[in-house]
Fold:
Amino acid sequence: MRRSDNYFPVPGEDKNPDMGNANTNTNPGEAIPMKNLYAEDGSPLCPRHGPFFSDGKRRVDYVLAYHIQKPGSVRRKSNKASEGNFIRRLRRSLSMRSSRAPLQPKEDPEIAAQDQGTDFHEDDKRFKREEFEENLLETGLELEKDEGGKIAGMGFLKIHAPWNVLCREAEFMKLKMPTKKDYEVKQGSNIVEKIRLFIHKVTAPLHPKVDSARQQSIKSLSHPFSREKQHLFDLSDPDKFFDSKTRSSIVYEVLKRTKCIRAKYPMGITTLLANGVYTSGFPLHDGEIEGINEMDNDRKLLYEQWASYSAFYKYQPIGLIRKYFGEKVGLYFAWLGVYTQMLIPAAIVGVIVFLYGCATVDDNIPSMEICDPRNNITMCPLCDHACSYWKLVTACGTARASHLFDNPATVFFSIFMALWAVLFMEHWKRRQMRLNYIWDLTGFGEEEQDHNRAEYEFRVMQKTMKLENSAPKDEKVKLTCMDRMPAYMTTVVMMCFMIMVTFVMVFGVILYRISIKAALHMSNYPAARSNIRATVKTTAAIINLIIIIILDEIYAAIARWLTKLEVPKTDKSFEERLIFKTFVLKFVNAFTPIVYLAFFRGRLVGRPGNYLYVVGSYRMEECAHAGCLMELCIQLCITMLGKQLIQNNLFEIGLPKLKKLLRKRKSEGDFKQQEEMKKSLQRHERDHFLGPFIGLNPEYMEMIIQFGMVTLFVASFPLAPLFALLNNIIEIRLDAKKFVTELRRPIAAKAKDIGIWYNLLRGLSKVAVIVNAFVISFTSDFIPRLVYQYMYSPDGTMHGFVNHALSYFNVSDFQPGTDPVQPMHLGYSVQICRYKDYREPPWSNTPYELSKEFWAILSARLAFVVVFQNVVMLMSDFVDWLIPDIPKDISLQIHKEKILMVEMFMKEEQGRRLTLRPHHRHENCTTPSPDNRSPPQPRSRPVSHANCY
Structure:
């Protein structure tokens, strides 16, 4: 007998899958009533608020939430005839559908659709839910509905996977489960083991207090689960054999396979969620994190040992994170931990480089010459008409500050960070392989089927409807490249437009700097004119930061919209396309102002008497005498700190708390009642109020942009690793608290690596070598000083470098209308002014042409780029070759596992042969041959029948 289509097992019922409810007197075709989960006073029958069915025994492995409609009774009383017709039609449809679903009395859908357009739609949703739930029951899952909870208008379908379903699906998904066979994991030689134990004792306070039932040196041999070989697996505690993470992932796989096939078009769970048939679906958290009477659970342990800010100095319990959230989330936090750990030596070296600049600033000859008032060097105006001549000594502070970030140690730090990036990548690969071994992912591949997305299925449905009469019936309809061509064209146009918007915003900030500098020079207030450069640099950097933050949010929404427009077929394809678009837009948005300051500012200026103008009379801005490195450092510092403080902390911490505070003030009494009500809610109702899990892409993207800030322009900002380290220490706990307390529990997804993010990291580390080579060569004064010291210095020192780097200009060669309004600003008439460039003097045969010193320095700069890039790349490749991707002890243990697996199956086969041998020995006595003839008897001796008994 087939199982009833909508049989919901409840406590006290016979759960034989081949029989109906033996304790319920029902006629065939009648609906089986579902047991009410609440008493007459509204209190739950089961006082326990854990993730269980109402019997308190069967665990809730997954929950589907949906809207429920209140039944109307007034119209039914006034339309009895219409209702009678409706009931007859409804019974006829139920008999055709072979359904025993319990139906609430409702109005006639036709009448309701005339008055309220959504009623018929709600009926349609209910019918789809009933059919989907019938199909779920056919798969062996057990269901329990909760439509009388304290959340008005919401119903919940609780799903439980019994043992036979778990075993069947585990075998189908090829899940690796621990067997009874244990073996000792060797850590290495005696010396290595002693060093490891010593380090473990020293760092004991840093380890989280997570109890482990099994010793770290003992590991279970794992094998893909098989129902025929259940005796091989450790089934000493069946309730814990499949943990909650595995159970929820198994149920989700069943949900993805199950479809509504009676509808015109098959609809899976993703389509049902997208169309609002179900509003949400999620696995449940294990329990609460606070409360004296609350039982210990993994969630509470994670909150105490991982998500608490007081545990910021401790290592992360990666094993417990993986056990609770799955391998994909566990790999993210493991990667974030390795990245943060590797930032410690980078931050220490960066601080040493910065302190070296502070210690040697008084010994820097170029800055001493700039600060010496005896040189009396008069500089040309920084802007047309409004600006006047100025003394080089006024740039003393900028020159001294530039030395902090532009000194010989900067070159060493750039090489160090390039090798650091390689070491970080190698360290992560080894760590990843170790985790794959510990988590039994060494043989894991992308074998699981990637199901179609709901949007794709919906578009296919629309296309099928259009081609219903023209297309052959046997032809499978799918979206082609031509169907997506408008979306692709829109994506290309929008991406180019967004990049142009970024360029326009940067150009707008450039115009702001030019105009505000001229305005401050024309100001009559001494305070405004006292420190014009610092004011313009700081305000422009802050404006850039605000623009970057705003555009980041806009670009993220646009990238998701464009990706949905393309209608990718699978979730994997959707994720890869979304990551690519978001990365391109956010990378261009964050680094365009920095690239301009590093490579373009001060090089598209021209010279006095022949300046380059944009938008009419706006003259392109120049670098300070000490170079643009100081401005680049300020921009990097403000952008990096601002993004971390505002985007990471304010948006993730401040805004949710602000919203909660506003709600509390707006309705003080209602807020308290809501808080009290939440305490009495069941587990699935509490989790319903949590935020949905939207994936790890925003978390990865945030760290990738930070990695770019740390590596790409580290030559100009050696303190970047320190700021990144401080931010990540907070970021780990912030993300941990968000995952444990604020988000619904995600579906445990398996993954053996971090996917496309590793390729992005590797690409950024390669680009960082080239970018830092150009920053040192073209943005800083390192190469000009080196060339001067070894080619033009009379005594081999840096004395005279400032005068050598300045060219001469005759003020009579100014273009009309560009000469200063106040030529006597310095108290005397100026005939010759100086500007930073390598050009011929006005009295030479080729006035104002590029000098031979310029070409010598340009050659040295290009040579340095080539040498630096090749040397660092060669060293990086050598380090990559020197460090194996797979640790030696892990490769040995993997080989050992294979040998032990073969031995285990050989012993099983040998035991089976020993069990079957007596039957083979005496089969002559009782077993006939296949052709019903007696087998030949041995001639050496007569057959003894004594052995048969």
Confidence is low (pLDDT under 50) at residues 1-48, 72-120, 920-949. Residues 44 and 798 are 85 Å apart (CA to CA). The first helix runs from residue 74 to 78.
